[in-house]
Amino acid sequence: MTTKRKSSFSALLLPLFLIIVTACAVDPSYNLDEKPIDPSVTLFQDGLTIPIGSSERIRLDTLIKRIQPAVDDYLVVGDDGSYTFCYDGSFSLNDQLKDLDLGQITSIDGISFSQGFTLHTDELDQNARSYDVDYTYTATLKDFPIELKELEEVVFDEVYLNMEAIFDSLPDDPKAAINVDLEIGLPSFITPNSISIKGTVADNRFAITPIKLEKISGVEIPENGSLEVEVTIVGQISANDENIDLSAFQKDIVMTVNASLQDENGKLSIAKARGKFSYDFSQTTTIPLNTLPEILKDDSMCIDLSNPRISLGLTTNVGIPLSGSLEIVPFVDDQPLTDNIITLENVVLPCSASASQDAVKAFCICNDKASVPAGYEFLKADLSKILKQIPDSIQIRIDANAGGGTSAVIEPKAQYKFDIDYGIRVPLAFGEDFYITADTEIDLSGVQAVTSMGEFGIKGKVVNETPLSLSVELNILDAEGEIIPQSKPNIISIDGKATSDIDVSIYSADKDRAIAKARLTISITAVSDEPVKPSECLQFIDLVAVAPEGLTIDPELLPKI
Amino acid sequence: MKRLRLISLIAAIMMSLGASSQSFRTGYFLDNYIYGYRINPAQVNDRSSLGLFIGNFDLQNASSVGVSSFLFPNPDGSSSLVTGLNKAISTDRFLGGLKNHNFVSLDENINLFALGLSDGRRMHTIEVNTRVMGTASIPKSVFSLLKSGKTGTYDFNGLYADASALADICYGYSTVLGENLSVGGRFHLLFGLANLNFRSRGSSVTMDEKAIVAGADMQLNASGMIGFHTNEDGGVDMRRIEFSPTPFGSLGATLDLGCEYKSDFGLDAMVSITDFGAISWNNKLSAQANASVEFKGFFSEGGNIKTDLDDLLDLNNALDYRVIKGRRGLRMMPCNIAAGARYQMPFWSGMTVGMLNTCHIGRASSWFETRIGVTATPVRIVSVTANLGLGTMGPTWGTAVNLHLGPVNIIAGADSFLSPLGKLKSTTFPINSFVENVHLGISFTFN
Fold this sequence. Notes:
Chain A is mainly beta.
């Protein structure tokens, strides 16, 4: 075959080939030179579900320890298995008692007098060679403390009767020794109330050995606060020598008697006094609550508690029976919450028989007598209003008085004390006003690439054995902190004592605003009057993370190859 | 005559193009199609033929999906295209255009030598071919998972890829029995040159609200002229893999069988099976990966939140991977089963109508097709045929022209016309699924 024929064959084959191959038309819809390809893809378009799983049964005590360990320190489990919030403390009024100076109300000025007697010459009994003495001294005890109404018994502390007689114009005859034989008569309420004085004058002076007074008893204090007492001196001043020349007694003899009933301080010091006092006692003490966890005092919390109670244990060795009122005033920011003041009337404080013994009395302040422990005196008051908003401090004001109708024992030198132990006991059963709110923000700026892929949500169930209801609102925020509207429900509601469904999502309805943060607003309320028990549990069941509309991948975010 | 034979031989050497088509199905409808024995080994040609070396190509490619299965005009009316994973394309629309097993297969047969010696009643054929074959199959579940992602089980067992190069020496014999029946067969001896095979079995992902369970058992085998060294633990040192010219270690054989009956009233019927056999690949390397992951969430057994997510995501715990010295692996070759009939019109002997059913059975790349065609041979030297087909890949049509110019046979045709096409720069590509076979060739016949 010639080259020409070969060429002819080639010429025949080539067009045939071209006809066959190029006979196929180009669809302009798929002309990629003119049609760009949008590379964005959405995976799992019908919804991606990723299991999160089920949590363990989360006991409430475990949850509290994890979230608010400081609160856990104040929780005690009672016999019925429920929580009781406990806050204990103590304070004393000892310093205030020192300021009172109890000795003052039993402080009586000493009695002293100096009286001159004239022994007239013409009164000399020639036969008896004596002068008769019969003198009554009236003294007025005054300036009794107005609180003192009656002295039933007073034991003096080193109070002595001192007496001396100083004679003037006694004869010079050495034989003219003068004997003194007197009987001192004291008021009947003094023991001893008759003192015999015998002796011989020497150097124109006669002094007695100080006689210790024992006690005073049975003294009614007049209303004007002064008491007249009489001291009698009866007896004889005589010469003891029969051979004394009575003519030597030519002048009147002046006998000056100096006597006193007092201690070294000039007082009738009392070691112990039993009497009836009318005394007012008022003290205000502030108890700071700054050691409580801050969360309890936040404005976002309203602790509406069903039956809170405060126990007071009073220990004192004060012997004055006091009763009065007890006022509890909550303070917030140094301002009293006047609507929440609690006043308790007719509170009888403990009274000790002796400064060496303690008198103890316990009170339980609550609204329900049935919850008062044994050994406590019930004082009815609704404390819930104080604790709805935990104050910064509580001021306790005691206004007490001794009415004067009951005996009291005072030992002025004793170290008096008045200790008050308090305990706040709050069974955790909440009222209908109970709420706690809290906000927390989660930074999502680092996962914008993920959040921009589409809607994300969490579904599942939660079993809640506690009486606390939780509501969690999920809001998404942009970089400026403004809320971005969402097109899907964003609230989780977990009912107390119930099983609830969880269905919450993050889905921005405004694609022009990038999600920077998520804000969780948590609100907790309570099933009214249901006690909270640490064994009660929360459990999340079958949680799944969902992307209901899949994941849209922005090709700009993919790594460039 | 001898000169003409020599010229024919030379022409075949220099200019033969696509002369031998193993399954150029349109060729079945042609009268006196020289290489009809490749469809039906029972065919006995009237004359001997020869085809040599360059230009003999049989390019058969098929794809159960096209570009339109993955790229869609943007529903918003803009001029852009979007992928099937775009949110604008619904799940039903995207997955509805995919098959359970989506494959692309290539079967490029390069004929080096083809000789047919025939006396009209018996024919001997000898061929030497090289074949480059490739198949990649992705199950629909892969796309379902990516597109839908809803809870359920996604089975990835159909994930498969294979690339082979082999040499094929075959001998065929056909004979006419009696007046009407002819039978024949061809024996192919296969020499494996290189093979890379990947398969996944037992692989799946199950997703529900309680757990995500994923498992995989994958194997990659490689055979060919590669050498390697092993580590102390018996594993292959991946840093020391090198080219190593070694004798062929991979052998196989396939068989073609067929029979044809030519009735006296113009009806011809045939049935055949071709390429039925297997090849044993001497795998040099085998990479095996087994994975088992069960994710039940972020809580540990005790119900506490796992703190060590690294442990959760540690693939070392989930994946068992090793590369070892391979073993022999027997693999079936893709085969064809064909059944056809042709009927010569009683009113004109130059016209025949015919039907051909072809079933291609390949691992992860099977398809079926039925064609009906009409052939006209107005003059002895020209035969023209056209046919319409319908099958797994959808409707198609083919045509061919066969010129008998003395000792020279020229044929041009195609089993399908790739239309419509897409275009990127100077390259066109089919948009829809297709099975195409372009056939061009020259052969020389002689007595």
